[in-house]
């Protein structure tokens, strides 16, 4: 008979998270710096009347709105599970990333419009030297901010911080293109180039936003995460015990900083229920410690069958029906399979 037993005592459902202050600090810095740079870019546009600079400023509006929404999602995602949300609130981070991507794509409409107007009817650009200098300074600050957010996001396992950082780096690439384009306008006097740059920036923004929306969609749909499954495979192989006959239907998905894992653990049918539960608890503890407590594990226990004898590593088993296969090692494709047909 199959046994199914989660171990709730191993779940960390309290709101103690040493990394949460780092996430919130990063989001506060992101919002504050984005507001300051927004003001700087619109001031630069007021000085120069450049459509390329306007396109950069319009994207900065999205930075501010997305940053505020991301800060809220980071705060909500850190809340512990409750009766209404037994799996926690981490998925809001994927909604946030998708929302940010959609805003980025929406911003491209205004940028295209402005770029086409100035491409068709170009006009002289005023105090271009000051404008280029101000935009270069803002771009440098944005570069540092984006790198800081991505580094903090990876350190704290926050997709929102990483998405926000990548969005800001996209803004940096756009700003660099604008600076280079305005330098060419300054050197050549070709005013149509100002509008052309704005249109190119719009194309880049659409691509960037589309990638964020796609990433958010795949995470919300629990798309397979090969990197995470490979990590779990290496971990389980390293800590494999003689009574762990086999594993199948290994599944894992992320929700913010939390990782949710479930699997079928095949155990010798001669084990007592108490011993089987002990083995399941050991496996759960191994996985949860690997993810610093930010994981929940559900182990479904199956009794072994004769056709699994080749992959069994238990010594001196009086129920063995076939020879052991010493070359049968666990790999990702084997552990995620649905059936328990043994390798020969």
Low-confidence stretches: 1-16
CATH topology of the largest domain: Alpha-lytic protease prodomain-like
User: In percent terms, what proportion of residues is strand?
Assistant: 5-15%
How large is the radius of gyration?
27 Å
Helix count equals 9
The portion of residues assigned to helices is 55-70%
The name of the CATH superfamily of the largest domain reads Cation efflux protein transmembrane domain
Any idea what the shape is?
elongated
Number of E strands: 4
CA distance, first residue to last residue: 25 Å
Q: Please identify the structural class as seen in this structure.
A: alpha+beta
Oligomer: single chain
Question: Which CATH class of the largest domain?
Answer: Mainly Alpha
Describe, in short, the structure shown.
By secondary structure, the protein is of the alpha+beta class.
Account of the 3D structure:
- The protein has 344 residues and is α+β, with helices and mostly antiparallel strands.
- The protein has a 4-stranded mixed beta sheet.
- The chain has 2 domains: 20-220, Up-down Bundle (Alpha-lytic protease prodomain-like); 225-335, Alpha-Beta Plaits (2-Layer Sandwich).
- Strand 3, helix 8 (273-290) and strand 4 (295-303) form a beta-alpha-beta unit.
- It has helices spanning 20-48, 51-77, 92-120, 128-156, 159-188, 192-220, 226-238, 273-290, 332-335, and strands at 3-6, 246-255, 258-267, 295-303.
- Helix 2 (51-77) packs antiparallel against helix 5 (159-188), helix 2 (51-77) runs parallel beside helix 6 (192-220) and helix 3 packs antiparallel against helix 6.
- The radius of gyration is 27 Å and the shape is elongated.
- Residues 1-16 have low confidence and may be disordered.
């Amino acid at each position: 008979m199959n046994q199914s037993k989660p171990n709730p005592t191993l779940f960390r459902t309290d709101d103690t998270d040493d990394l949460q202050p780092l996430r919130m600090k990063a989001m506060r810095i992101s919002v504050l710096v984005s507001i300051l740079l927004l003001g700087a870019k619109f001031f630069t546009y007021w000085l120069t009347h450049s459509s390329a600079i306007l396109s950069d400023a319009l994207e900065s509006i999205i930075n501010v709105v997305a940053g505020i929404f991301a800060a809220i999602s980071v705060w909500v995602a850190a809340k512990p599970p409750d009766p209404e949300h037994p799996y926690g609130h981490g998925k809001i981070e994927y909604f946030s990333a998708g929302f940010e991507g959609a805003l980025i794509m929406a911003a491209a409409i205004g940028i295209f419009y402005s770029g086409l107007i100035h491409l068709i009817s170009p006009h002289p650009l005023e105090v271009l030297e000051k404008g280029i200098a101000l935009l270069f300074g803002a771009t440098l600050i944005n570069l540092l901010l984006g790198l800081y957010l991505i580094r903090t996001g990876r350190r704290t396992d926050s997709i929102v911080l990483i998405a926000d950082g990548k969005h800001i780096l996209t803004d940096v690439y756009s700003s660099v293109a604008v600076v280079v384009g305005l330098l060419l306008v300054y050197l050549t006097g070709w005013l149509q180039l100002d509008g052309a740059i704005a249109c190119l920036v719009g194309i880049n923004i659409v691509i960037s936003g589309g990638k964020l929306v796609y990433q958010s969609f795949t995470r919300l749909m629990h798309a397979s995460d090969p990197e995470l499954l490979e990590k779990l495979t290496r971990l389980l192989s390293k800590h494999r015990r003689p009574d762990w006959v086999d594993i199948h239907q290994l599944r894992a998905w992320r929700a913010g900083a939390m990782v949710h894992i479930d699997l079928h653990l095949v155990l010798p049918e001669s084990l007592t229920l108490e011993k089987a539960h002990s083995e399941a608890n050991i496996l759960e503890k191994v996985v949860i410690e690997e993810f610093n407590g930010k994981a929940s594990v559900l182990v479904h226990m199956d009794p072994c069958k004769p056709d699994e004898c080749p992959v069994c590593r238990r010594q001196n088993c009086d129920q063995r029906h076939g020879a052991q296969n010493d070359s049968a090692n666990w790999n990702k494709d084997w552990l995620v399979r649905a059936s328990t047909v043994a390798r020969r």
